[in-house]
Write a structure and sequence with these properties.
Layout: E1 9-15, H1 21-31, E2 37-39, E3 48-55, H2 63-66, E4 70-78, E5 80-82, E6 91-94, H3 102-111, E7 114-118, E8 127-128, E9 131-132, H4 133-138, E10 148-160, E11 164-171, H5 177-188, E12 192-202, E13 211-212, H6 213-218, H7 223-228, E14 242-245, H8 247-254, E15 269-275, E16 282-288, E17 294-299
Parallel strand pairs: 1-13, 3-12, 14-15
Antiparallel strand pairs: 1-3, 2-3, 4-11, 4-12, 5-6, 7-10, 8-9, 10-11, 15-16, 16-17
C-alpha cells in the first residue's frame, strides 16, 4: 500500500458471504489507506453480516466488542450432518427427518436457552499448541477441546418447514453457532447443519448501521467521504462510567502516571475518560485504584476529538 495514513475510528461492515473476515479486513484497510486495522470477532466465509472494524487507535479498544453479546439469524437443515457443521463441509451422515410440529421446535429452542457449556467445533479459530483448530481439522486431526461456559439469552423461531427451520439467537461471547445447530440436530435425533448464517447485531450496534463492501469500494479514492463514514472511537465503549478530566490530568495519564481525581469517582473498575469542558472528547480508559487515584490503562495518542 502506498502512503498509508493515520486514520482512527470504527466502521460496521456488512461482510458478504464467500470471503474470509481477514480478506474483508485487508480490503477495508487498503480502501482507507490505513496504517493499522483490526476486526472484532471473525465470521466464517459462509457467514454474512456485522463485522466491526477498528482503524488506528480504535484497535486499542477492540476487546470491548470481542467480548460483547451477538445476535445471529440462522437457518438449520435437518437430516444431514457435515464435517464442518455447515453446508460447505462433506456429508458424513444422512438420516430420515421425523415429522415435527411447531410446538416441538419451540420446545427444542427453549431447551437450549440459558447458561450452559459448549464444546467448540474443530473448525473454529481457537488455537491448540499455536495451530488454529480448523487447520488441524483439515488435516484429519482431532484434539480434545474443553467445554466452555456460554449463555444463550434467547432463541426465537422465525419460520420452519419439514426439514429446516430459521431462528434468531442472542448469545454470549465464545458461542459457536455451528456447534449449537449440531447439538440441536442431535437432540432431535436426525442431525443438522447450517445453510445460512448472518450476524445482525454486535453489542449495541444494529443491522441498519452497517454498510456493504461495495459501498466502501465505490468511495475508493475519496478519503474525505470515507472518513465521514467512521464512527467515533468511544462508540466502541458505552458501558463504562464516564469521568471528566482536565488537560493537565490527561498529560500525566498519557505519561503513564496515575492522578488524584478531585471529585467523587466510582469505587473500583474501569472508567471512560472524557476531556473536561465544552470541546469534550474521548481520551481513553482508566482504572480506579484502591486509594482512589485514577491510573491509565489505554490512552489515545495523536487523536483529536
Amino acid at each position: 500500500m502506498k502512503n498509508p495514513r493515520s486514520v482512527n475510528g470504527l466502521l460496521l461492515l456488512d461482510k458478504p458471504s464467500g470471503i474470509s473476515s481477514n480478506t474483508a479486513l485487508q480490503t477495508i484497510k487498503t480502501i482507507f489507506q490505513a496504517q493499522k486495522a483490526g476486526h472484532t470477532g471473525s465470521l466464517d466465509p459462509l457467514a454474512s453480516g456485522m463485522l466491526p472494524i477498528c482503524l488506528g487507535e480504535a484497535t486499542k479498544f477492540s476487546q470491548f466488542l470481542l467480548t460483547s453479546d451477538k445476535i445471529y439469524r440462522v437457518t438449520a437443515k435437518l437430516g444431514i450432518q457435515t464435517t464442518t457443521g455447515d453446508k460447505e463441509g462433506e456429508i458424513i451422515q444422512e438420516q430420515a427427518v421425523p415429522s415435527f410440529g411447531i410446538d416441538r421446535i419451540n420446545q427444542l429452542l427453549t431447551s437450549f436457552t440459558g447458561k450452559q457449556t459448549q464444546v467448540p467445533s474443530m473448525y473454529s479459530a481457537l488455537k491448540y499448541k499455536g495451530q488454529p483448530l480448523y487447520k488441524l481439522a483439515r488435516q484429519g486431526i482431532e484434539v480434545e477441546r474443553p467445554e466452555r461456559p456460554i449463555e444463550i439469552h434467547y432463541i426465537h423461531l422465525l419460520n420452519h418447514a419439514a426439514d429446516e427451520f430459521t431462528f434468531e439467537v442472542k448469545s454470549s461471547k465464545g458461542t459457536y453457532i455451528r456447534t449449537l445447530v449440531e447439538d440441536m440436530g442431535i437432540a432431535l435425533g436426525c442431525g443438522a447443519h447450517i445453510t445460512a448464517l448472518r450476524r445482525i447485531n454486535a453489542a449495541h450496534f444494529q443491522e441498519d448501521q452497517m454498510q456493504t463492501l461495495a459501498f466502501f469500494e465505490n468511495l475508493r479514492g475519496n478519503l474525505t467521504k470515507l472518513d465521514s463514514q467512521l464512527l467515533p472511537i468511544d462508540q466502541v465503549i458505552t458501558q463504562l462510567p464516564e469521568l471528566q478530566i482536565s488537560e493537565a490530568a490527561f498529560y500525566y495519564l498519557s505519561q503513564g502516571q496515575p492522578i488524584i481525581y478531585p471529585y467523587e469517582a466510582p469505587t473500583e473498575g474501569q472508567v471512560k475518560l472524557m476531556r473536561k469542558g465544552e470541546q469534550g472528547g474521548f481520551l481513553g480508559i482508566g482504572k480506579v485504584l484502591a486509594d482512589g487515584r485514577i491510573a491509565p490503562e489505554r490512552m489515545l495518542h495523536g487523536v483529536k476529538n
